[in-house]
Amino acid sequence: MTNYSIEDSLYFYFGYKSFRKGQREIIEAVLNDKNVFAILPTGSGKSICYQLPAIMNSGMVIVISPLLSLMTDQVKQLRATGFKKVAALNSMISWKEKENTIKNLDSYQLIYLSPEMLQSERILQSLSQLSIHLFVIDEAHCISQWGGHEFRPDYLRIKKAHIRLNSPTILALTATATPDVQKDIVTALQLHDAKKIIYPMDKPNISFVVEHVEHMEEKQHKVIDLVQNYHVPTLIYFSSRDEATKIAISLQSKFPKRNIAYYHGGLDKQDRLLIQQQFMNHQLDVICCTNAFGMGINKKDIQLIIHYHIPSQIESFIQEIGRAGREGQECVSVTLYHDRDTFISLRLLETELPQSSLIEYYLKLIYENKIPIEQLKEDFMVQTNGIEAHWRFFRYQLEKIGILRQNLIVTDTLRFTEALSTIQTTIKKRIAYKQRKRQEMLQWVFTKNCRRFELFKHFQDSFQTPDYMCCDHCDFEWNKWSPPSQLTVKSKQNWQAVLKDILYQGDIEKNETS
Amino acid sequence: MFTYIILECVKQLNGQRTMYNIYHLLTAKKSIQTVQDSNLFGLTRYYGIYKSLPREEYNQFVNDLAKEQLIKNDENQHLFITSHGENMLIELHGKLAPYFAFDGMRFYEVSYPFSKHLILFIQIITHIHVKKTNFIPIIEDRSIQQFVKKVWSVHKNNSTTLLTLIYRDLDKVLQFFPDVYSALFVDQLTTSKQIGLSKYQLSTKYNINPHDCYLFFMNTIHYICFKIEDGEAFQFLANLYPNQAKYRILSDSARKTLYYLNEGFVLEKIAAKRHLKENTIKDHIVEIAYINKTLEWKRYITKQEYDIITEKINTLSTKKLKDIKEQLPESISYFQIKLVMALEQNGETAYD
Q1: pLDDT score, position A151
Q2: Which of A121, A318, B5, B255 is packed most tightly, with the most Cβ within 10 A?
């Protein structure tokens, strides 16, 4: 037996000298086989709570996570630190790689799975042969209908899988959960006796500013001013790819000496990877992005977050500002608002669910026996432009009303009209719910109260005293914010010099002048 | 450079094919028809030089050329070069010809893995040199990572020497090109000091359209490939050149079989048509499997059979067909085993 403390391991594997809020408590509890339900704010190092036990080899750990890119990033990062006994099973990896992983399941200490993978009998069967010590449910709010737009029907079946795997210790983690959502999580996972570790979500080192503009162009001017005046790592969030691209290009031409890029789901994989890495490597000052950016980004020195458009709900907003000031340094969130934004976000919201007419069309095909179940998904996905979430929603509705049972279609228990109206009612309810969420976001924009209080009141009764300025309704003044300038350098060398430099040929030249 | 290439293709095809044939040529799609066309019209050197070209961007680019009246199209998407376009072509030819290294038909398959080997190897070696071991590989493709790992394990001597060798090779290559080409190339490299720039960043930095940024880079890669095959005395680069066997060219006879397969003929029909034994055709199919991943393998083997065979191949250390065959159910044929071995050697599995 080694005598290393968990602090030693933390330092050895992750380079941190001490734990952050909540981490130690969680790790100790799960190491003692106690179920834990924890709410830790974004950026507080949630993943260490299960990575460390896995690395210390206290038994196999499996992690259910709906965020495929985050999963891939974490596997990459762990491998990069030298821990290779980690694997991921999800729909993104190739068939061959999946086969290989499944064949060698017992050689891993940490396995990431997407919730869909837990539905595979074959994978469940292989997993049940192993002795799993810790069963982690990341982003546990996806279990709840009220967990915002991320609701994952597959999450409701997790409990069954957990029992199949001989009920190992559960660790349910999330960054955002209103009291309603918390209740759903506890019920779905039967965590009534679990240790609850809930940390406040407010971030004492961030200040909030909202600026109402009269004309759309003013937003652009504001952004130009901010980028000009504040030379700190900056993220600017947009609700559309085109806008992010357009503003990034115009900023770059305005400030040729700065390094400004854009990032969104429309870039190819290689370019996305390059931009992310450049930002981490201090080669970029500003990124204009959509909400596709940020998951798995572990950059500690972002100090300015601008929302060019408001997100569709408070939870997303909190997550996005959570990427700033990871080391407690002073940072600012600026939200730009124009009255027309309301309409834009309303339109976006409606595209988050499949259209009623589409549901009717496919339900009819099902009832008339005109479409085999195998083909249903493919056809439906084509119609929704490949939006997987729409298909998941439809499939779950079919299961809920009992038409789809273990991949069999059973239509004789429910009439077509009833089935249709049930699903349509659900859609209406969901849209109404999303509208309420959007309304909450708007109320925050328009509030006359303290923004910190108004932002977090949905989640907690009080908040910590801010470390710096609070918000534009309390004490915020632009001229009191003067963060030290951190600019990236643009090399002006010719290619010969650059090539020599990056391949470390600086000194050799001198030694062998021939 | 993209303008030059498109103008040249339009001129050679002279309205006898549609704009999409040029797209298929550049991206190496629809193999047999395109291969024949490129031979027919003398465009083999453009074959497959821009596999990642998105269709919409291609359409956009062609439309822009038409707007500039360099080309014109008829209602059937057939393209013709204008006299204005002819002049432009001559002018561009004068500028680009001395540095033009593309030889698509010869290098379209090796050039991609080679460029990835080079980029990943440079990232790894510079990190090892400064003893940074935790970094995220810029190339995610597993087969590329494995290749590079192997090269590194053979040449483990010391990073200082390797860096000098690579530096000398690259410096020699890049001296040949105009400064802009070389600068673009160097900026795309990822090392422990810098992460490479993306296409759009290069395009802004040098005020060159993104297609040209890509093509300049690939042109340099084709140049290196040519030099390596030509026996140029590089000090290190040849070690990163992909394993040749995998990229060999099809025999003429196998090529004919591939043609019929693409036309939709079944194995037995092809044998009858060509007065060959079915086994010969099967050998062709295996040959094709080594280089081409796009056939419909399901016709010859089910997923279950594929799984059983891969499992056996992986667990048995032998490569002897007879030994493998003996360990498998009788229903599985030699042909199927050979097919799986060919597909598996291809790296990424082709079966799905």
Answers
A1: 61
A2: B5
Whether this prediction's pTM lies above 0.90 is answered by no
Please state the φ and ψ torsions of residue A211, each to the nearest 5 degrees: -120, 120
Both tokens of residue B34?
């395109």
Task: Give A165 or A460, the one with higher predicted confidence.
Answer: A165
Task: Give residue B293's pLDDT band: very low, low, confident or very high (50, 70, 90).
Answer: low
Question: Which 117-136 residues of chain B touch chain A by CB within 8 A?
Answer: 122, 126, 129-130, 133-136
Q: Using 50, 70 and 90 to split pLDDT, how confident is the model at A1?
A: very low
Contact B196 A274 (CB under 8 A): yes
Alpha-carbon distance values, A98 to A18, A138, B45, B69, B304 (Å): 36, 21, 38, 52, 15
Q: What is the least distance, in Å, from the CA of A76 to any CA of chain B?
A: 7
Q: Do B174 and A499 touch (CB under 8 A)?
A: yes
- To which CATH superfamily is domain A206-346 assigned? P-loop containing nucleotide triphosphate hydrolases (3.40.50.300)
Chain B environment of A500 (Cβ under 8 Å): 167
**Is A283 at the interface with chain B, CB within 8 A?**
yes
A350 sits in the region (left: phi over 0; alpha: psi -120 to 50; else beta) called: alpha
Q: Does A270 touch chain B (CB under 8 A)?
A: yes
Residues of chain A positioned with their CB less than 8 A from the CB of B182? 495
Q: Do the domains A206-346 and A6-198 match in fold?
A: yes
Q: What is the ipTM of this complex?
A: 0.71
**What fold characterizes domain A6-198?**
Rossmann fold (3.40.50)
Q: What is the pLDDT of residue B137?
A: 86
